[in-house]
Each structure stands twice: as structure tokens, then as C-alpha cells.
Design goal:
- GO terms for molecular function: RNA binding.
- Keywords: Coiled coil, Membrane, Repeat, RNA-binding, Transmembrane, Transmembrane helix.
- It holds the Pfam family KH_1.
- InterPro entries: KH_dom, KH_dom_type_1, KH_dom_type_1_sf.
- Strands 1-2-4-3 form a 4-stranded antiparallel β-sheet. It has a 4-stranded antiparallel β-sheet with strand order 7-9-11-10, with helices on one face. Strands 41-43-45-44 form a 4-stranded antiparallel β-sheet, covered by helices on one side.
- β3 and β4 form a beta hairpin.
- The protein has 12 domains: 73 residues, TATA-Binding Protein; 70 residues, Ribosomal Protein S8, Chain: A, domain 1, CATH 3.30.1370.120; 66 residues, Ribosomal Protein S8, Chain: A, domain 1, CATH 3.30.1370.10; 76 residues, no CATH class; 80 residues, 2-Layer Sandwich (Ribosomal Protein S8, Chain: A, domain 1); 68 residues, Ribosomal Protein S8, Chain: A, domain 1 (2-Layer Sandwich); 75 residues, Ribosomal Protein S8, Chain: A, domain 1, CATH 3.30.1370.10; 70 residues, K Homology domain, type 1 (Ribosomal Protein S8, Chain: A, domain 1, 2-Layer Sandwich), CATH 3.30.1370; and more.
- By secondary structure, the protein is of the alpha+beta class.
- The protein has 43 helices and 45 strands.
- The radius of gyration is 45 Å and the shape is extended.
- The longest helix is centred in the middle third of the chain and has 24 residues.
């Protein structure tokens, strides 16, 4: 546990009055009245404005405890007025303890118990009116009185749990050196004090934040609270309160440093606050304080509490004064000049004029600049702002071409960081390009270049040279953004070759933008780049075709979730994922996720695939086959054989820690089980004979050939062991552990070196009939004669050495403390062994019984064993007390409470404040074993946690008792309506009514139980029965809603001629309108080819242009519509919730058909270039939409060519053409 340093202190009263916001900066004392003199301050000076540093936060002081009738008994001071020491105290409420059988003890019995345990005399008197009992105690020593009093209080007072929020920095003081302070509190008061790890600390630094309101920026001043830890005290009420007072006193008897922040200082006031830093330091009057400024318009004051409070009040008063006295003036400046008023320029303006300037954000369309200052300074500030705004030359460089080309050029220069390149090459110049948001909205994109005119001109020349090379060198192709990653992974090498072969660079958009376009650029910087537009277009087209082909290859993307039990996942992945890599392939274009990674919170028994359909299908096929093979292998490994060997050979067959048998298992992949059970016939036979060799039964399971080989090896080893000799040595038991060594390493070395088996007696050995049990001081060496002799000699030499250096200390500890002494994985006990150099043994026979004492034996030098005992007993003192309780829960609810894999019970324990470690959870709640017919559930653990677990179990059982299962018949074809898209309807129903809905085929359908109304649906098709579980009223309400979801609606058929199909759809607008009516459409036939051509029927010839002085050069061709339309019709099935919606949909479709019939001709208007298309379309298509409405035609502006297609009647075509050409003329006139 780690601890920091921080204390609590009481607050000081705030300063009265507010100082002048503009005092003389050089004054030796804090000024009270305003002065006229001002001093320029270097805001870049590190001495005036150092960088922010971290400070130690301070926690709020804890509440004081009160001793009285409501909070517990008042313990009066001890008075020694005679040789016998006496004391008295009064209790307002008595909680009598209970006996072992659960009966309450009388007050007299409690007093007798205390008097018998301590040499003390106790008398009690009761006041019935006040309901108080006064106890008088006498003893020979004050110590005996104090012990007896505390013990009596612990028996008669209710046990409470109190919490003290202690700053992290104070935890060290509470615990004390090596836990001395905490131990003193526990020993003196007999209470349990728990200090959680530092990871559980919480910070209250933002919990008390306040705001002055949304209208103005808030100036917020608060203590920067230090993270705190909840120190819990559990024990009898008066003793717990006294312990709380002791801990509170430790916390409060410190003088901490504090940190306060002045937040959200208005941006126009911040420069004035910065300039007055020296004034604020003078307000500290020489006290310890640090003032720092951070980027969030926040001043941080750290230091002594009194000084910090005083200085913060001065800063607050200054801010309020600035709000009152500062004047403002606004002026409008072109947006490009705002760049000259940002950053360092604002500091220069303040130093020259004592005025601050606020410039709107670059994304803000406002051109208004605001100047703040004193009334006499604002005019000068305004002049300085104008001077700065005109201090440098600004060139606006428009990106050429229509807006689509401009955006392509902008995207390229952004991706290659070209502005940074220009800035580095031309010092003194600053290049600013439009932001992404601006580029998406603007119709013209400009690059702002700022600096000296000669430098700016050089930048413009270089920029123009690059853009000249880029004309005709860019191209965008549409590719679904979902395919981008697969294309790049699968074709990484080909993408690199595009630049080497075709000099074309491919830029995929960044994934978060989700843009379905890819930019191709003919590299202008390449030494091999061709200046020919034809050559550029040729290479761009080749790369575009190749990319589209790649996109087509991965266009058929498939996602599949394959149900596979989690137990097979590891085998399918293989060591280091080698099997999975073989399935995915070398190009790694297939994405595979196992279990929880698949994103399904309901199960981990799945594998998720995503990739090209063929790759997914191939991988799924392989996985399925591998699972089937694994299952068949499991079946094939079920063969077993059984045979017997002499029991005396079992230890040698198994080996040290199972080494021999484990080796056999790994080599042959078999399972070997030993059993000491003897058949009844053998038991009867043993009674008749005086001496019968004990047998052990072996069972070997696996593949038949492997089982036979394992049996052969074991019998061969048994035959070899039959010829061995045995020697018994007399070695005192106190030396056994040292001779065995940690984890048996010394014995293993002896056995490996001499080929023998060394057996030491176990402390709790089973007495097997027919075989003499080893005595505590006997050690057996078994093996070849030579090996036994050599092992005996070395063992006796080691014994002589141990007798000289080995000392033994045996003591007991409570069984509940064993887990804490051992630690996770034995970490704690091993740490004690390493630190003390002592050998420590724990008797294993009683470890499971936490109510019994356990013997611990320490061996080593005297210093080592004493140190080990001290360390272990220190851990024991920190282990909380435990209690046990039994509750009764009907067995039918056990499975529901425990949950799958015990997860439900684990979550319940954690919710009640219990441990999350499964090892620590073991034993807290014990249900009857499977097969035991019992309703008893046993609880054991800390009283507070145990009480919460009991309440939670009772609430859970109460809820289960009220639960019913109701069945409802709903046709299987309509189950989709209940589920809804993505399961939305089903989730809404379950959350709204608090029920569980199980549809046929779902995993929990068979486990939910039989419905209470099974007779009502016994004739229904099982596939149509839906089960709803929950309270009766909730089930009925949910069923009513479900029936509403599947109620029959209205349907109708409409025939749409294919020749009018595209015109009726209106590019999908009609279907969107029908969906808004609540009508769904199913089409029987889709049109295979467009109803009208996309190119003029005759070649474009501008020599035959429209002859008029006011009409621009253009080509106009008209052709009848529907000449090449398909024959036949498409049948549309309309499904609506009601007849009214259906009638509206039919009417809307009929109107669309009539409008399509009126569009008898197609006009092709081709212009020389696309330069006027953006203005013709208008913002978000507003202008072209207006033309469509005015002329009653469909107008489509070409994306890839210069042709505008107009569909309508002949007269409407002429009107639309004239309107478009007039706008073209107006657009070009405006440009000139």
C-alpha cells in the first residue's frame, strides 16, 4: 500500500473589500486605494510567469464525532479516590449477546462472564424512565478495570461500522511505523480497522464545482481536494466512536499546504490578470505561495492555507473589478486580417496599449474584432489593432478549377504537408489553408499567404508552379470506405508498384472520415513525370481501372458468426496462433475473432469471421472440420484398462510430485488414476489370512495403443522395483523439513543421484491395514543396495549438519488467518521465508477448518525463527473476525441464484462488498452439493458482508417466488416483428415490462420451464409458442403489446410500367415518401437498363451553336423519351398498417405515374466546360431544385462530362433550356 502526504486544516475568513485592479506594480505593500501609475510587464518572463507545476491537493477535514445518548454511551474519566480503582459508565441501549444455540443471554450472565474473566467487581443499576443502565466497576488495578470495561462494552453495545475519509497522504500517519499506530488503536479499543489499498482512492476535486450560470463565464474558486481512502472501523459503538476520534485527531493535527484554482477567467480579462502577478505576490506579504497559469484560462495558487486564501480573494476581486471598469469597442476587419491579431500579436497589443483584443475563431464567419481596456486606453488600443492588422502583406491565392477540383488539390497539399514545406523554405512567410469544415461548405477555396511582399511573391510562384503541374494530374474514384482496409491489406505491394510503374500515388481517406472516395495523383515531384495531359490521364485511368478491379474483388464482403464451444478455441488458434495463421492465409485479408472479442455479450461460444465471401466460406469449412476431428479424437480417447499392483510400489511409479506419471501422460497422452479401494472379496480374504499384500488399482484411459504401451511400461517398472531393498533411518522429526528442502529439492537430488526413493513420514498419515505406518522419526530409503547405502551416508551427514544449525519454534494461529499468511500463490509466506531465512511449515490437516487453530513450525537460527513468528503474528492481528450463519432457500432456486459457471453467485458477493478474487470468495456461501436434498445455505465471513449477502439472497428468492411463465401463440412467420431490426423491439419489450421473452429456437427456451397456462396452448404448433417469464401483471402487459406488433395490416398490388419505372422512383424519393406513410414496398421486377440515354444521340458540335448574342456557345439536342425502354411492368406489393396509409400510398404512386407519362422528350444541353456548374447547382442543390420546380422537368447535371440532361414535355424542355442559359450568361458576366 502506497501513501502520499497531505493534511487537513481549518479555513480562514476571506479578505474584506476588493483592491484596485490596477495598482502600482512596484509598491512594497499591498495597495488599498487606486493609483494612476502603471508599469509595463514582460509577459514572456519566466520569473514572472513560470510554467505550471503539480501541487499536493488537500482533502476536506473530517466531521467531528459527538458522544451522547444518540451516538453511544458516554465513558466517564477514571477517578482513583481509594486504593481500589473504580469506574462507571452509562448505556442508553443494551444489545444482549446470544449463546451458541441462539438464545439471548441475561444481563446477569454477561456480568458474571466478565467478572470471571477479569479480576473485577461489577454492579448495575437501571433507570426505567430514562431507559439507561449504569455500571459500577472496581478492581485492584486501573488496567484490569479498563480491560473489563472494554470487554463489557463489546458484549452489550451494538456493533457498528463507521467510515473516515482520510487523505491518501495521511494513511502513513494513521498506520504508523511498521503498523504501530494502527495496532495500538486495535489493541487498545478492540475494534477492527480496515485501510483499503491506494488503488481504491477517490478524488473529490470536482465534486463541489459550482458555476455562475450559462450567460457569462464562471469564475470558480475551489480547494483542489486530495484523493481520499475510506478507512472503515467496525466494533462496539462506543469503542468504534472512540477509534474514529483517534483517527480524526491524527488527521487534523497537521498543518497542510493547499491548492486553489481560479477557473474560467474571461479571455478579455486574462491579460490584465497576467500583468498583475507581482501585485498578487505582494498580497502574500512574504508568505509561501506559488502562482502558475495554465492553458485553460486558470490561475493555480499553491502554498500555506492562510496565504493562498488571501491571494485568491485578491484575484477574485480583481476579476470582478475588471468586469465593471473595462470598456469595449468593436470594429469589422476582413477575415484574412484576423490572422495578424492572434497569438503573440495579442501580447504585443497589450504591452503597447494596455488593452486586450478578442478575435473570433477562424471557423466563425463573424468579422467582428473586440478591444477591451480602460476608458482612456480603448482608443489607443483600437489604433494599435488597426496598425497590427495592416502590418504585413496578405495574398489570397484561390485554388483553380471547379470546387471538386479545388478540393482534390487541397486534399493533396494537405496530405503531403505542403504548407509546412513552404514555411520552411521561405522564412518569414506563413501559409494558411482552409480547414476541413470550411472546405466542405465553401464554393471557392483560398490559400492565405502572409509576410513581406517579396517573400509572399516567391511563395506564390512556387505554389503556382506546383498547381500548374497538378492540372489534369488528379482524379477521384468512388470506392466504398468499408473496402479500403481490405484493399490495402490484400494489395499492399501492388499499390506501391503504381508509383513505380505509373508514377501515380494513391491516397485513401483516413478511416474515421468514412469517405467513399480515393484520390489519385500523378506525382508532380517525380523526375520521370511527363508534362503531357494525355500521358497523365492515361496513367490515372490505368490505375483507376486497377483499383476498381481490386474493389470489385473485395466487394463481396461477408460476415459470419460460427457457433463453436469455447473449450475448442485454444486448440483452433494453436501455439502462438500458428494454426489460425494457416487458416487466414499469407495475405491476412480475413478477420477472425474468438469468444468475447466477437462482440456478443450473451455467449463466448462463437467465432466471428469477416472478409471476402470465398475466404470466409473456406475458413468456416476448415474450422468446422477441425472441431469435428477434435470431437472424434475425444471419443477415440475413451478406451481404458484396469489392473492392480502392490501398493508399496505406487510412490515410485508416481514419482516426486507426480514427475514419473506426468512424463508418461505427456509422452502417450493417457490418463492414469490410482485407487486404494479393495473389493469386498479381497477384504473377506484378508480376514482369513494373517498377512495379505495390499493392492492399488490403476486405471489408464486414452487411445487403445497408447493405453497398452503405458500398462506395459508400468508393469516393467513394478517388476524392477520388486528386487529393491529398504532401509529405515531414525531421524528426529524436527530435522525433516530441512533435509527435504524447499519443494523437496534436496530429496529430489538424492533420489536422482542414487536412483532411490526417500520417504519421510507425514504428520497426518493414513493407517493402511496390513502395512506398518512410519513413526514420526523414521525415514525410509528404498532402491538398489548400492544406491541406498550412498543415500544413507549423505543423509546422515546432512543430519549432523542440521543438528548444529537447526532450531525449532512451534506456535498456533487461527485457521481463518492461514489464507492471509500464505498470500496469493504463496507470495506472502515466501517473502517471510526470504526475509528471515527461516524454514516455515504449516500443518495441512486443519487448514480447511477456519474455526480451528493451526500449528506453524519455524526452523532456523534463533533470530530467524523469532523474526518469522513476529511477522506471521503481525499478519494475524490484521485478519478480521468471522461469523457463520445458515439460511434456508428452496432447492429449486439454487441453480438460478448460482448462475452459469457460478457467475451469478460471484456477482452477488461482489455487489455486497465481498472479495472479487475467486479464492477469497470460496467458503463465503456454501450451497448443498449436487445430489444432496437440502435447503440449507451456509454463510461464513465478515459480519457486515455476511449480513448484506443474506439480505441480497432473501430478496433474490422473493423475486424468484413471484415469477411465472406464460405462453402465447404467435405464428412463427410473425416472430420477426416481435424481434425487430437488430432485436430492438424485443429489447424494448423486455426492458419496459421487466420480463424475459423466449422465442422457439433460442438458447434459454427449454430452460425457462413449463408455462402456467400450458393447457391453453396444448393444441398449438410448438414453433408458434412464445414463452414470457416475469410477474403475472408484467407478462400480461407484454403479451398484449406483442399481439399489437403482429396484428394484420392492409396490403395492395400496384402495376408500374417498366418504361416509367425510373421516372416514378424519382431517384428513390418516392420510396422514402411511402416509408414516411408507414408503407413498405416489395418489387417483383427491377429495371435492367436505364430508360433514357446518358449521352447526346449525335456528336457534340459547337459550330452549330445557338446563334444569339446573349446566348453562350452550347450544343442542344432533343430526342423522344422511352424509345429504348423495356417492355412489361413491375408489380409492387404495398404493406401498410391501416387502410388510410395504403390509400395515401396508392394516390402518391398514381400521381408519380401520370407525371412520368408527361415527360415525353429528353434534351441534351452541352456546354464547352464545367466552370459554371457549381453556381448552376447552387448551395446543396438549391438552385437546380428551384429550376426543376419552376419548369416541371427533371434536370441532371453531369458529374463526369459537360452535358446537362433535361427530361419533360417539349415546351418544358425549351423553358428549362432558356432558364439555364440565362443563368450561364449572368454567371459569366459577374466574373468579368
Amino acid at each position: 500500500m502506497a501513501h502520499a502526504a497531505a493534511d487537513h486544516n481549518k479555513r480562514l475568513d476571506p479578505l474584506e473589500g476588493a483592491p484596485d485592479p490596477f495598482p502600482v506594480l512596484g509598491a512594497p505593500e499591498v495597495p488599498v486605494k487606486a493609483r494612476d501609475g502603471r508599469e509595463a510587464l514582460d509577459v514572456d518572463s519566466h520569473s514572472h510567469f513560470p510554467s505550471l507545476v503539480s501541487s499536493t491537493p488537500v482533502a476536506q477535514p473530517p466531521p467531528k464525532s459527538a458522544w451522547g445518548a444518540d451516538s453511544g454511551p458516554r465513558i466517564k474519566a477514571n477517578v482513583r479516590s481509594q486504593p481500589m480503582v473504580s469506574d462507571s459508565f452509562t448505556l442508553s441501549a443494551i444489545a444482549l449477546p446470544t449463546t451458541k444455540d441462539g438464545k439471548p443471554m441475561s444481563l446477569g450472565d454477561v456480568m458474571k462472564q466478565v467478572m470471571s474473566k477479569f479480576k473485577v467487581k461489577i454492579e448495575a443499576s437501571a433507570n426505567q424512565k430514562a431507559r439507561q443502565t449504569t455500571f459500577h466497576m472496581k478492581a485492584e488495578t486501573e488496567k484490569e478495570v479498563e480491560k473489563a470495561k472494554r470487554h463489557l462494552l463489546s458484549l452489550l453495545s451494538p456493533v457498528v461500522t463507521l467510515t473516515v475519509l482520510a487523505p491518501v497522504s495521511m494513511i502513513g500517519s494513521i498506520i504508523g511505523s511498521k503498523g504501530a499506530t494502527l495496532k495500538q488503536i486495535r489493541d487498545q479499543l478492540g475494534v477492527k480497522v480496515d485501510v483499503p489499498p491506494k488503488e481504491t482512492s477517490t478524488s473529490n476535486g470536482t465534486s463541489n464545482e459550482t458555476s455562475s450560470g450559462p450567460a457569462t463565464p464562471s469564475v470558480e474558486v475551489e480547494d483542489e481536494e486530495e484523493p481520499t481512502l475510506p478507512v472503515t472501523i467496525t466494533g462496539p459503538q462506543p469503542l468504534a466512536l472512540e477509534a474514529r476520534d483517534m483517527i480524526t485527531s491524527i488527521i487534523s493535527n497537521r498543518s497542510p499546504r493547499i491548492t486553489r484554482r481560479v477557473k474560467d477567467i474571461p479571455s478579455h480579462i486574462l491579460p490584465f490578470i497576467i500583468a498583475l502577478r507581482s501585485h498578487f505576490l505582494q498580497a502574500a506579504q512574504g508568505g509561501d505561495i506559488q502562482l502558475t497559469l495554465n492553458a485553460e484560462r486558470e490561475v493555480v495558487a499553491n502554498g500555506d492555507r492562510e496565504v493562498v486564501v488571501r491571494v485568491v480573494e485578491v484575484i477574485k476581486a480583481t476579476i470582478q473589478s475588471c468586469k465593471t471598469v473595462l470598456n469595449l469597442m468593436k470594429l469589422s476587419l476582413p477575415k484574412r486580417q484576423h490572422r495578424l491579431l492572434d497569438g503573440k500579436a495579442q501580447e504585443d497589443i497589450f504591452m503597447k496599449s494596455k488593452c486586450s483584443v478578442v478575435v473570433p475563431d477562424i471557423e466563425d464567419p463573424s468579422e467582428e474584432v473586440t478591444v477591451y481596456g480602460m476608458p482612456d486606453d480603448v482608443q489607443a488600443g483600437l489604433a494599435i489593432v488597426m496598425e497590427m492588422a495592416n502590418s504585413q502583406y496578405i495574398h489570397v491565392f484561390p485554388l483553380p478549377g471547379p470546387i471538386s477540383l479545388s478540393r482534390q488539390l487541397l486534399a493533396y497539399i494537405t496530405r503531403i504537408n505542403y504548407p509546412e514545406t513552404l514555411n520552411a523554405k521561405h522564412p518569414g512567410a506563413s501559409v494558411f489553408i482552409p480547414s476541413t469544415a470550411t472546405a466542405a461548405q465553401a464554393s471557392v477555396l483560398n490559400v492565405d499567404i502572409i509576410g513581406e511582399k517579396s517573400v509572399v511573391d516567391a511563395v506564390v510562384r512556387q505554389m503556382s508552379e506546383l498547381l500548374g503541374k497538378l492540372i489534369g494530374a488528379t482524379k477521384e474514384i468512388p470506392i466504398d470506405w468499408l473496402s479500403h482496409e481490405l484493399i490495402q491489406v490484400k494489395n499492399a505491394q501492388k499499390l506501391e508498384q503504381f508509383h513505380e510503374v505509373d508514377n501515380v500515388q494513391v491516397y485513401f481517406p483516413l478511416e474515421p472520415t468514412q469517405q467513399s472516395s480515393v484520390l489519385l495523383v500523378y506525382d508532380p515531384f517525380s523526375p520521370h513525370a511527363s508534362p503531357s495531359p494525355v500521358e497523365k490521364e492515361k496513367h490515372l485511368d490505368e490505375v483507376a481501372q486497377a483499383l476498381l478491379k481490386m474493389a470489385k474483388e473485395v466487394a463481396d464482403i461477408k460476415t459470419e458468426v460460427l457457433p463453436v464451444e469455447k473449450r475448442w478455441h485454444k486448440a483452433l488458434m494453436g501455439m502462438d496462433g500458428n494454426i489460425l495463421h494457416s487458416i487466414v492465409g499469407e495475405d491476412q485479408a480475413l478477420l477472425v475473432k474468438f469468444g468475447a472479442e466477437a462482440g456478443d455479450p450473451s455467449t463466448e461460444d462463437v467465432i466471428w469471421f469477416r472478409g471476402i465471401r470465398s475466404d470466409v466460406d473456406n475458413a468456416v469449412k476448415k474450422i468446422r472440420q477441425m472441431v469435428e476431428d477434435a470431437k472424434e479424437d475425444a471419443i477415440a480417447s475413451s478406451y481404458f484398462t484396469e489392473f492392480e499392483i502392490d501398493k508399496e510400489f505406487v510412490g515410485r511409479i508416481v514419482g516426486v510430485q507426480g514427475a514419473n506419471i506426468n512424463k508418461l501422460r505427456e509422452q502417450l497422452n493417457v490418463r492414469v488414476d490410482f485407487s486404494d479401494e479393495v473389493e469386498e472379496k479381497e477384504k473377506e480374504f484378508s480376514k482369513k489370512k494373517k498377512s495379505v499384500t495390499q493392492k492399488a488399482k490403476l486405471k489408464i484411459t486414452g487411445r487403445k495403443e497408447n493405453v497398452d504401451e503405458a500398462k506395459k511400461r508400468i508393469l516393467a517398472q513394478v517388476e524392477k522395483l520388486a528386487d529393491e531393498t529398504t532401509e529405515i533411518l531414525k531421524i528426529p522429526g524436527q530435522y525433516h523439513a530441512s533435509l527435504i528442502g524447499q519443494s523437496g529439492k534436496y530429496v529430489v537430488r538424492l533420489e536422482d543421484r542414487y536412483g532411490v526413493k526417500v520417504t519421510f513420514p507425514r504428520q497426518f498419515g493414513d493407517n493402511v491395514e496390513g502395512k506398518r505406518e512410519l513413526k514420526p522419526d523414521e525415514v525410509v530409503i528404498r532402491g538398489g543396495k548400492k544406491g541406498v547405502a550412498q543415500a544413507k551416508l549423505e543423509l546422515l551427514e546432512a543430519l549432523d549438519f542440521e543438528k548444529e544449525v537447526n532450531n525449532t519454534l512451534k506456535f498456533t494461529v487461527p485457521g481463518r488467518a492461514i489464507a492471509h499468511i500464505l498470500g496469493k500463490g504463496g507470495a506472502t509466506i515466501n517473502e517471510i521465508k526470504d526475509e528471515t531465512d527461516a524454514q516455515i511449515d504449516i500443518e495441512r490437516g486443519t487448514i480447511e477448518d477456519k474455526s480451528a487453530d493451526v500449528y506453524i513450525t519455524a526452523r532456523g537460527t534463533k533470530a530467524a525463527i523469532n523474526a518469522a513468528k513476529t511477522a506471521i503474528l503481525a499478519i494475524v492481528e490484521q485478519v478480521p473476525e468471522e461469523t457463520s450463519e445458515t439460511i434456508y432457500v428452496e432447492q429449486k432456486y439454487h441453480r438460478s441464484i448460482i448462475g452459469p459457471g457460478g457467475q451469478g453467485l460471484k456477482d452477488l458477493i461482489v455487489r455486497c462488498g465481498g472479495p472479487s478474487d475467486p479464492k477469497l470468495q470460496a467458503g463465503l456461501v456454501r450451497f448443498p452439493r449436487q445430489g444432496d436434498i437440502s435447503d440449507e445455505v451456509r454463510l461464513r465471513g465478515e459480519p457486515g458482508v455476511l449480513s448484506r449477502i443474506k439480505d441480497e439472497l432473501e430478496n433474490k428468492v422473493s423475486a424468484l417466488r413471484d415469477q411465472v411463465v406464460v405462453a402465447v401463440e404467435i405464428p412463427a412467420a410473425q416472430h420477426r416483428n416481435i424481434i425487430g431490426r437488430g432485436g430492438q423491439h424485443l429489447h424494448d419489450l423486455q426492458n419496459r415490462y421487466g420480463v424475459y421473452i423466449q422465442l422457439p429456437g433460442s438458447r434459454g427456451y427449454g430452460q425457462v420451464g413449463e408455462p402456467s397456462n400450458a393447457t391453453e396452448v396444448e393444441t398449438a404448433d410448438p414453433g408458434d409458442i412464445v414463452k414470457v417469464s416475469g410477474s403475472q401483471s408484467a407478462c400480461e402487459a407484454a403479451i398484449s403489446d406483442m399481439k399489437g406488433l403482429v396484428a394484420d395490416g392492409a396490403t395492395a398490388m400496384v402495376s408500374i410500367p417498366l418504361m416509367y419505372h425510373d421516372a416514378v422512383l424519382q431517384q428513390g424519393a418516392l420510396l422514402r415518401t411511402l416509408r414516411s406513410f408507414g408503407v413498405q414496398v416489395e418489387q417483383s421486377v427491377q429495371q435492367n437498363r436505364p430508360t433514357f440515354p446518358t449521352q447526346p444521340p449525335q456528336p457534340v458540335n459547337f459550330s452549330t451553336r445557338i446563334n444569339s448574342e446573349d446566348v453562350p456557345e452550347a450544343d442542344w439536342q432533343v430526342t423522344p423519351n422511352h424509345q429504348h425502354a423495356e417492355e412489361g411492368s413491375s408489380e409492387w406489393t404495398l404493406k401498410a398498417k391501416d387502410a388510410t396509409s395504403l390509400e395515401r400510398a396508392q394516390s402518391e404512386i398514381q400521381v408519380s405515374i401520370e407525371q412520368a407519362k408527361d415527360k415525353t422528350h429528353i434534351g441534351f444541353l452541352t456546354l464547352p466546360d464545367r466552370s459554371v456548374f457549381p453556381r448552376l447547382v447552387g448551395t446543396k442543390g438549391s438552385n437546380i431544385a428551384r429550376l426543376r420546380n419552376e419548369t416541371g422537368t427533371d434536370i441532371t447535371v453531369g458529374r463526369e462530362n459537360n452535358t446537362i440532361i433535361i427530361v419533360g414535355s417539349e415546351s418544358a424542355l425549351e423553358a428549362a433550356k432558356e432558364a439555364i442559359l440565362s443563368q450561364v450568361v449572368a454567371s459569366r458576366a459577374g466574373r468579368r
